[in-house]
Amino acid sequence: STGDSRRGAAPGEPEQSTAPPEPSGGVEIQCRRPSTKAGSPTRTAADATSSAEGAADRSAAAGATVADYGGHNGAVDVSRYARLEDERRFLVAALPDGAASPRLIEDRYVTGTRLRVRRVTDGHGTVRKLGQKVRAHADHPTAVWHTTMYLDEAEFAALVQLGGSALAKRRWSLPSGGCADEFLGTLAGLVLVEGEPPFDAPPRSLEVTDDERYTGGALAALDGAAAAALVADAAARAT
What we know:
This protein is an alpha+beta fold. Helix content is about 15%, strand content about 35%. It contains 4 helices and 14 strands. The protein has a 10-stranded antiparallel beta sheet with strand order 5-10-9-8-7-11-12-13-6-14. A hairpin with a 7-residue loop joins β12 and β13. The termini are far apart.
């Protein structure tokens, strides 16, 4: 019947579920809503194919987004594997009123790649993930195709050993539906608010959506002196 995720079994055997497993640990760890933009996984349904060329032909006919995925396997329909994120980002002097449900986010941006290893810890437990972000437009940092894979402890332990830059922050949910990131360590004092449109700018904020300096990878790459200078500049601009 419609909506039934069970798969038929042989007589005498229990039916098996094909529904995807729920990730363990905390819930509501992101501040984003599922994308409904044209070309996103929620708007595109294309049959699987064993060749990149066949995928490109079918995707073009269906109106899906097709891109040269870094020269690997030719043209790839990224919308079949990733969801499109297009967020606005704002610099604020302090956490906005109503910030709640904090969770600790620890990131490692793997050197020379578009990969990010993430651990999220809250009152419900810990979630570990491997993410890849591919820009939809090379000269705009905000619109990205984001692919996520959930990891167990052993997988996380192996991947976090890869060379990279670390970034730690505390993420808060906001009544507006967005989130506020309160950075830790050498970036203590920096607070960014972000969310997908429709999203109202927080009071007394400065939009830095297209400022490369405030992307996660750029922040993680800063040394102590550069981080201190950016925090001081941000404090002056946000007041």
